[in-house]
Amino acid sequence: MSEPLETRVSAVAALDEPTRRRLYDHVVRQSQPVSRDEAAEALQLPRTTAAFHLDRLADAGLLDVVYERRTGRSGPGAGRPSKLYRRSTRQLTVSVPERRYDLAGRLLAATLEEAGRSGEPPQEVLVRRAYEVGREFGSAARPDGDQTGQDAVLRLLEEYGFEPRVEDGEVLLGNCPFHALAQDFTELVCGMNLHLLDGVLDGLSATGYRARLAPGPDHCCVRLEPTGTEGRP
User: Fold this and answer.
1) Within a 10 A sphere around the Cβ of 146, how many other Cβ atoms?
2) CA distances from 18 to 8, 24, 26, 70, 92 (A)
């Protein structure tokens, strides 16, 4: 499950400080982890300044910290390992409004791979895979005893950038995380989205909602309606 938007924004904001950004750029350009002394010398900074900003970058998850003995020696008398910094393996993407093209890309790539192997029509594979992924998301976010089905639905949809809002008993999705793709490939992407949200609701279980297509301006093509109303057209 991806990190909340506010967490990713905070991490990226750490690069707004000019000295910190210079240190980050220097570290990621190196083929080997960088020590505080090496970074300070390269950027002509006091060692304490370099250490402070490198640790802030590590705290934000932008750099990883590793410990190595630069002498190549080991055992007694080899000295303490040096604290070194390298680019984090963490990947950060921030978009406003929230977009999830990585999720769409993984679904489409997995679909093509399976369809090529099985000979099944790609659109049928995509429908099934979207549902399965949505069900996994929902199962992982099932409500505890203090949370209603509606609360669980809204929390999960908010986390994935759908911007849900309740109007007249239905849940409207104010944002499409696959907006640009949906503009160019409307039927394909909206169908994928519908089955993804079908899976989410089934995975959450007993939410009191079902997903249906309801295209319209300024909101996602899918909305959630109470299960007491008529089914999908």
Assistant:
1) 6
2) 19, 10, 12, 29, 19
3-state helix, strand, coil in the chain (%, to 5): 50, 15, 35
Q: What is the per-residue pLDDT across 116-128, written as a single tens digit (0 to 9) for each?
A: 999 999 999 999 9
How far is residue 105 from each of residues 42, 89, 110, 129, measured CA to CA in Å? Answer: 39, 20, 8, 12
| Percent over 90 (pLDDT), the chain | 56
Half-sphere CA count of 211, side-chain side, radius 13 A = 23
> What is the SS3 assignment for 34?
strand
Closest by CA position to 202, among listed 125, 149, 124: 149
Tell me if 161 sits within 8 A of 5, measured CB to CB.
yes
Q: How many CA atoms lie within 13 A of 54 on its CB side?
A: 28
CA–CA separation, 149 vs 142, rounded Å? Answer: 8
CB within 8 Å of 2: residues ≥ 6 apart:
159, 160
* Residue type at position 71: T
Residue 41 has pLDDT above 90, yes or no: yes
Nearest Cα residue to 85 out of 1, 174, 20, 140 = 20
Q: What is the rounded distance in angstroms from the CA atom of residue 12 to the CA atom of residue 17? A: 10
Q: Which amino acid is located at 20 in the chain?
A: R
Radius of gyration of the chain, Cα coordinates, nearest whole angstrom: 24
Q: What is each CA distance from 189 to 105, 121, 123, 126, 226, in whole angstroms? A: 11, 16, 10, 10, 23
Q: Which residues of 13-39 are buried (b: 16+ CB within 10 A; e: fewer)?
A: ebbeeeebebbbebbeeeeebbbbebb
